[in-house]
Structures are given as C-alpha cells and as structure tokens.
Design goal:
The chain is built from four helices and six strands, in the order H-H-E-E-E-H-E-E-H-E. It has 156 residues and is of the alpha+beta class. The protein starts with a helix and ends with a strand.
C-alpha cells in the first residue's frame, strides 16, 4: 500500500507540474551548453547507485515511475532519492530536455530548483518550491559535480 502511495505522489507531482507549467515548458531548454560532454549511464538503476554512493538517499527506494510530459508519457523514468530529490533517466535527449523544462518551471512558484546533470540523466532537488511534500529534505547536489562529472545548475 505504501509503494502505491509513493508512486501516486510522484505521478501527482509530475502531473501538477504539467498542468501548471505546460505553457512555460514548451520554451524551456535544458541549458545553452550541450549535454554531450557530460557522463551517461545505461539505466536508472546505474544512476541511482552512483548518486546513492554520494548522497544520503533512501535505503529502500520506491519503484521507478513513468514521467509525464505535455503530450503524455515521455521516454523516461524516475526514482526518489528523498521526498524532494529525484533521479531521472532518459532514452533520448528530447525527453531529457522536456523533463528538465517541466522541473525547472517549478521555480516560477518561488524558490530555486537545483540540478546535477548528466548526459541522459539528472538529479533534481525541488525542496524550495513547496511542491510534493510538507517536510522538505534538501540535499547539496553540487557535491556530485566532481566525483560523477555532473553539471550543477540552479534555476530561479
């Protein structure tokens, strides 16, 4: 029952972002820099293990969930690291850019959204935007830059 609730919360959060930000997400791009020089992974589990080795993630994470975009499900999946930090894995750069735009647009509600970006994956901390939980658990995603070769980004 608890697993179903966690999946529903993640799906609900992403659906909320899609509904609230569909107009602004269409014009959002990940960054001006190409992600081609960033590290890639072969699966969501590989990304989760790499991140868990550097951050204090949940010991027993919920199952991965599908990622919903403006036009429905996009070729991506995610898993929670904490209640407000999530790891995303993508099958294409277009899917990455769409999910990045959706997550970044949450910063429009006030606060910042933080990213540790890889080529076909990223970690996002949305603890400052007040969506998804009443007890945020922020993590310092900048610590992933050196050991994992990610790009740290803050969106305000």
């Amino acid at each position: 029952m608890m697993l179903k609730n966690r999946v529903a919360v993640t799906a609900g959060f992403l659906t909320l972002l899609v509904g609230a930000c569909s107009a602004c997400a269409a014009g959002s791009a990940a960054t001006n820099d190409s992600p081609d020089d960033l590290p890639s992974v072969s699966s969501l589990e590989e990304a989760r293990q790499a991140v868990s080795g550097q951050l204090e993630c949940l010991d027993d994470p919920p199952a991965s969930t599908a990622v919903m975009g403006d036009a429905g499900q996009i070729p991506a999946e995610s898993v929670k690291c904490t209640q407000t930090v999530e790891i995303f894995y993508f099958e294409s750069l277009d899917a990455r850019d769409e999910a990045y735009g959706l997550m970044a647009s949450a910063a429009q509600s006030g606060g910042s959204v933080y990213f540790a970006e890889g080529r076909n994956w990223f970690v996002v901390d949305y603890s400052e935007v007040g969506v998804g939980t009443t007890d945020p658990e922020p993590l310092d995603l900048s610590v992933l830059s050196a050991p994992l070769g990610t790009r740290f980004t803050e969106v305000k």
